[in-house]
Design a protein that fits this description.
With 212 residues, the chain is an alpha/beta fold. It contains eight helices and eight strands; from the N terminus they run ααβαβαβαβαββαβαβ. The longest helix is centred in the first third of the chain and has 12 residues, at 12-23. The chain is globular and about 55 Å long.
Amino acid sequence: MDLASAVMLADMIPTGFHGAELADIQYGDKVCVIGIGPVGLMSVAAAALRGASDLYAVGSRKICADVAREYGATEIIDYHNGDIAEQVLELTNGKGVDKVIIAGGTSEETFVEAVKMVKAGGRIGNVNYLGSGDVIIPRVEWGCGMGHKTIAGGLMYGGRLRMEKLASLITTGRLDPSKLITHKFNGFEHIEEALMLMKDKPRDLIKPVVII
């Protein structure tokens, strides 16, 4: 296995796939992935592998949108174009989606949008770390507490068996994590340069890798 692809098994792949597991995506589900950084892109790939039909990816950077389509997204939702829930509802003729994966956004706004766009009886899987603010659940869209809209969140699973199974997706060609790698460096002296890319987040960045 290519080393640069293999290093994605440490975090990007299992976290993104865990989002699809938390959302319990089934064949034919309409799915929305909020946030298409590297983790969100892996959630898109996982949702497609688990059988999602319409697969909406929320993001604005072209490089991420292009890769999201390669991983199976059928529509890109740009939050600059308005309320993302309204855009999803319009695309689904007001019905909403069956499942939502939250892989980015702010805690205050994102959960409101997710609850609005998911159908009654739907499920939201969150793998976005909420470092500040409060999670807000809109009462009416929550079905006044009677909508059976479930939110699940938690740390990704680890362990040898899980890593072996995820690795087999790469070695059999089911998953190509190299699409995440936009900047590749050779040599320990480039560590700081790669870290600064992660801090500054230029628009052409998805993930940098340093080969030692």
